MarR family transcriptional regulator
Amino acid sequence: MTIPSPGRPSDLMFLLSWASHALRAEHAVGLAELGISPRDHCVLARARAGGLTQRQLGELCGVDKTTMVVTLDHLEAAGLARRVPSPTDRRARLVEVTTQGEQVLDQAQEIAAGLEQDVLAALPDSEREVFLSAVQRLVGGRLSRVNACGPAGSVC
């Protein structure tokens, strides 16, 4: 099968977008049996350690304020998380994962790990660590500093 490509054979933006879309779709299918979405999974995973506000979780998961409220409404209604007043800021709410949320999160983590293992199995052993290391360096470095207009410091 040929990978569709709108541009050059090594069109980085298209290839990363295609890979991301495919992974998100498989992740969503796997999590659907638990009644959660990939966004729910991200919020639960980041909230597990405790002490984070809705706003902080939204930033960590790349979720805007309105979407975060809807996401937390869903997680609370499902009994997976709860919002509690912050002891240091009366305007803020901390997000806690419930016991039921912990159980669902454990299952979600297993699904995500299985998907990752399955996807990486498509690469030869010698390429897996190199691939992961390269993507981590990009995301933790050059691609971590992107704003709506381009790289940090660029002028719109």
